Amino acid sequence: MDDLRNKYLAAIADAADESALETLRVQAVGKKGEVSLKMRELGKMTPEERQVAGPALNALKDEINSALAAKKVALADKALDERLRAEWLDVTLPVRPQRRGSIHPVSQVWEECTAIFAEMGFSVAEGPQIDTDWYNFDALNIPGHHPARAEMDTFYMHRAEGDNRPPHVLRTHTSPVQIRHMEKHGAPCRIIAPGRVYRADYDQTHTPMFHQVEGLAIDKDISMANLKWVLEEFFSAFFEIEGIKTRFRASHFPFTEPSAEVDIQCSWEDGQLKIGQGDGWLEVLGSGMVHPKVLSAAGVDPAEWQGFAFGMGIDRIAMLKYGIPDLRAFFDSDLRWLRHYGFGALEVPTLHGGLSG
């Protein structure tokens, strides 16, 4: 027994890892281990021999088990010490910069437009993105043969056979919001209607889904002069350039009469667009006086009320202000693009604090 004790205690002390330790445990006190085999021999001994050998074997087994447990703890402590040394970190070093989220340029410009028009007394109106073709076309004096109503330009919702409900479309502009607002609140009113709109088009300056903000002002003595003032005030505030010149060109829209496309002053220098200077012009929106048929469709008496309306692309004016060359990049979810063109979460646009942060 002394030989077994010395043999295994020495081997346990020299064990390099838990795998070697488990091998020694099996060899010593496993079912077929040397100590276990010795204990099986007790049955062949005389009672007097068993009284001496039995306690001695049990003591040996306990001593080996205790040595195994102690060595296992020592190996675990050694592994922990090595891990702590390997994973050492100086907590006094500066922290790594954390990647932060950013506000999308569309969201930022949306808020900028809201802030500017709010200062001029406009409230925000909202409406459904899926609407009937009556609100999207008929109520806006758009005739049935108009190209905008063709399936190549407009997304129509599927209708089951026998469904007699009016056709529904993904709205092609936010003008239906104006109709719904006048139906509910009547006149006078002064609103903007920002939101998503949908058209079947896709290239560098067009995407199937984009964003618009439209404005509507209805009262008894509103004229094109009021429209011109509102737009010039907006452009000066939005581009943060005083005295931007505008040019109104006669045009035609079914929902306004007279109608005008609006250009702003600009110049091209070394391939860069500069707003508010030079002798060039850039088209930015469509506008006009609300057509009497549109007022009638919304339940407003055109003999008593009149007003103006305008509409512009939020994505487009964001591209102009922040120098973004491709509209499709707005919807690519490219984190590098978002980090470059995005805005901080606390850069809330206000007229007194600065729109662009």
In short:
The chain is α+β, with helices and mostly antiparallel strands and 357 residues long. The chain is built from eleven helices and ten strands. It has helices spanning 2-14, 18-29, 34-40, 47-86, 105-119, 133-136, 175-185, 224-239, 292-297, 314-322, 335-341, and strands spanning 123-124, 130-132, 168-170, 189-198, 209-219, 246-253, 256-269, 272-275, 280-290, 306-313.
Account of the protein in words:
With 357 residues, this protein is α+β, with helices and mostly antiparallel strands. It folds into 2 domains: 2-86; 105-341, BirA Bifunctional Protein, domain 2. 39% of the residues lie in helices and 21% in strands. It has helices at residues 2-14, 18-29, 34-40, 47-86, 105-119, 133-136, 175-185, 224-239, 292-297, 314-322, 335-341, and strands at residues 123-124, 130-132, 168-170, 189-198, 209-219, 246-253, 256-269, 272-275, 280-290, 306-313. A hairpin with a 2-residue loop joins strand 7 (256-269) and strand 8. The radius of gyration is 40 Å and the shape is elongated. The model has no long low-confidence stretch (mean pLDDT 87).
